[in-house]
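User: Can you fold this complex?
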Amino acid sequence: MESVTETRAFLKGNEALALGALHTGMNAYFGYPITPSSEVPEVLATEFGNPQYPGFKVFLQAASELEAINMVIGAASTGAKVMTATSGPGFSLKQEGISYAAGMELPMLIVDVNRSGPGLGNLGPEQSDYFQATKGGGHGGYRNIVLAPASVPEMASFPALGFSLAFKYRNPVVILADAFLGQLKEDLTFPEVPAPKFDVSWATTGARGPERHLLLSMHLDLPDQARHSEHLRSKYEEVARVEQRSESLRTDDADVVLVAYGITARLCRRAVGTLREKGIRAGLLRPITLSPFPSKEIAALVERGVQKFVVVELNMGQMVEDVRLATGGRARVETVQRLGGLLPSSLDLVHQVEAMAR
Amino acid sequence: MIEIEGHYEAKLGHLPTLTSKPTHYCAGCEHGTLTRLIAYALNELDARERTVLVDSVGCSVLAHEYLNVDAVQSPHGRAPAVMAGIKRMRPDLLVFAVQGDGDAVSIGLAELIHAANRGEAITIFLVNNAIYGMTGGQLAPTTPAGMITTTSPRGRDIALTGPPMDATKLVASLEAPAYVKRVLLPVTPTPTADFYNARGSIEGARSIQNAFRVQEMGGFSFVEFVSTCNVNWKMSILASKRYATDVLAKIFPPGLYKDKFGVEKR
Amino acid sequence: MANVAVPEVQRARVVVDAERCKGCDLCVVVCPQRNLHLSDSMNRSGFHPAEFRFHGEKGDCTACGLCYWVCPDFAIAEVSRWKA
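Assistant: Here's the predicted assembly.
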């Protein structure tokens, strides 16, 4: 692909994500190739050494996703902005490292370009890593912050958002994309993002005088661990209070609200238009943060009188549980699922929602 | 005989690179000795303020409690990858880890070999006591044939589990590593058997300093310390030193396996 | 032992931190002059700590430092020489 010298481009989602990360001053990338995410390291390998990105100091293809996440831990411990990208099977391998990173409170970006599963699956888009990304995935009690882009411009801008959240809260941030979005080509303009500097006084870059820095996730003394976990818990509560993000389309006067993220949100946007033409007052709520889940927005919709939600997702029913929880049992929550890497057409969705609405 | 206070000058004494915390290591364990030798080397290099220790998992997991330097925890076996991430980002730091044979030769073998193959400018000290110490004495890839462990209660059966694995030879077989050494660290019995030789500690101290020097010259350094685990081997402390000398040193011969920069000749 | 000269002032000495000692015996068996032995008393952890005596069975302490190099526990806190 041509090197981007101006800010306007026509790119694949994966390419936009890689360049977006560079634009926001990413320092290091470690990763292992896996379809459908491999364009990310390929673009970064090509751009390595480009004087346009002076902060990009390290690019290394690791021997496995396991090695990659641990290299990320190492680089992140120096206070650097570090990213890795993968798909489902690789995301599974990274869980141990992510758990350690969460325990040590290390900022980092992990991109999962969700493909079909479980196991080897196929290369079609799914949203079946939702639980894994939002509910932990690794062992022990922790939460990722999870961002769900739904367009190539968002693939480009979410690394900046991701790093700022990661450093603000000293927590891993997952960008949960999908195979379709990774390969989708769209027109975009790279936003002018400053490459901000974050407070990294906690970094282990050498003891200063009698003080030294420790990045540990081990607290053998039980009360110590309790205190540490309480600190993590209050952090996650703060994130849930402050960082919920979503986008609403025509929900102000909707009778039925579709809830979808990523590529399915794109299809639902179309479906909402068609449904409205057919006289059904449909709206769309698109979560942007999957963790923290935008439950406040859903509760507000229920409060306003929305009686029906239709959750559209590419899995056996994962986000629907969060929607049900957020409605507090005070609205009906239906589910539309597609499996195997298949996408519904917006017309399929219209028919299914129509049937549910009547 | 008079001892006059204030007129004795410490030749060997307090090290600012050691904390004052008593160790959790078993009595007689080479982990303690090695920790002390590393602290000495770091002090000689005046490197405390530019050193990062990566904790591995095993008896070495608490190394940061005793070494008074910055430290980052690593998941089991992953220390070479964590070290690579740190060093690539900050080549000015002195980055090292102490790994046990479970950490480096079992679960972390891939990470070790790949870091070595890339010639990462890091230093790895492998404490090989041929068993899993911290978890209570299970079979390790390095356990000799016939040794009784909690997961090989009838003795290690080579036909079932393969022979003991030689990490030093594996690492030395790669092109990139610059310094690969194996040291028999425990005290060794002399023919009179009532006096023990401390050659291992002296050789160990030298090897550690060489290894750090090699890192500063940009090379990958690896030193395996053949050690003991008397508690899990179910031997007395001195018997375990004899076992290391008579049995382990034959399976894992000490020596200089690679010295690309010729640091040992200096 | 009777033939070993005993000087007026000790050339060197070893300071043992008895509370850090685990009685592993390694310093005892490496000291060429037999200047260290495990005492009968116990430290707080229940070990018999090493004890230094000037002028052991085979002669004076020479500050060779072997005890310091082998001690796994930082119980050999200091090896020092007489400074004239």
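Confidence is low (pLDDT under 50) at residues 1-5 of chain A. Chain A has twelve helices and 15 strands.
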